[in-house]
Amino acid sequence: LYEKSGIIYIRLLSIDNLMIKGGYKMKKITVLGATGSIGMQTVDVVMNHPEQFKITAMAAGYNVAKVEEILAMIDVEYICMVKKEDALYLQEKYPDLKVVYGESGLIEIATLPEIEIVLNAIVGFAGLVPTIEAIKAKKDIALANKETLVVAGHIITELVKEYGVKLLPVDSEHSAIFQSLNGEEHNKIKKIILTASGGSFRDKQRDELAGVTVKEALNHPNWSMGAKITIDSATLFNKGLEVMEAKWLFDVDYDQIEVLIHPESIIHSMVEFVDTSIIGQLGNPDMRLPIQYALTYPERDYLIGGESLDLAKIASLTFKKPDFERFRALALAYQAGKSGGSMPCVLNGANEQANELFRNGKIEFLEIENLVEKALNKHQLVKNPTLEQLIEIDAWARNFVLKEIGED
Ligand code: NAD
Ligand code: MG
Hints:
Distance between the termini: 57 Å
Bound molecules: nicotinamide-adenine-dinucleotide, magnesium ion
Oligomer: single chain
Order of helices and strands: EEHEHEHEHEHEHEHEHEHHHEEEHHHHHH
């Protein structure tokens, strides 16, 4: 029995469920990037299922106030901050907690012995090393941080096999594909149909994109998300990153992944099998569902506060093929993905840097893809890069972008 938004909920559990969920088997979670958009929605999901989940440890970037907001809502045992000053401040204020910082801190909380699953909702390349270390410590991974698979899919997929852990997608499209593949593991996929809302500028022609503002780009029609991914949705680099993410998660070739513009964001993605049957997953745009499914998998549970999809009310769903000249970023992503090796890492690093420069008002919107393209053209492919090489290449790509605009 509990209350949320003024409504009292009563949950009836079967005897079996009571045996499992009544405290006998609590899933302990580390949330990396807890103060972000996905992180806060994860906190919400966990608070709605207190009998099943506990966030034992959480990492945040720089937002101390948001950390304190979370601490007022749930009991956490470990916290990691990026900066030592922030960690010292929190340690003094909350002496019962263990507060760590920096990359070593991230690794520490991602590998704690009592943790079963690490939900990685850090944005960008910074999520890579803690994911690797968590897998090596035999933790299941609920992955929102798509950049990890984009830059190091070859390393991550091998480690997942070697350590026998689960890699559960949180990205809504990939969760949809994952759900569509339930029970189909031995059946042949013809193609994956990755749906895309089209982002903030989906109705604009290419020549209308010059001079668009950061504010306009941040105004996503269907989803409320962190700033970086919202800009990535407007350029369509987000969809490009998701194409690469799908390649690694579902072991398909690039020519088996098709992007389909679907402005309503109701069909979250689909799989076509060799017999032409298409299976997809539908729902209102609500990231708490893929977050929760990654945590409850293979079971399902009530999505508290989730609304049933009313198809009669929506009445029609629309689709169109993306124009690769209009959405240049998508073409660049396929190109980088097909080249493989270190190219996706260059695309990702250059995009992270250019995306940030745009958000800070330093470059125009269309410069983002120009800078990424220049970095890709300049880079000499490394076929099977190691983690150390990826770290260097990522830094090179960011520096290249800064130098191009005279900011190094
Ligand atoms: P966000 O900007 O809202 O949050 C990012 C989080 O990462 C924050 O908690 C921040 O403090 C933390 N962080 C940033 N840099 C860090 C560092 N160096 N060390 C430790 N923590 C750091 O971003 P978001 O929208 O929640 O997205 C997070 C990830 O999930 C991204 O990879 C994004 O592509 C993916 N994703 C997000 C959504 C969404 O709806 N927001 C949907 C699908 C996938
Ligand atoms: Mg997505």
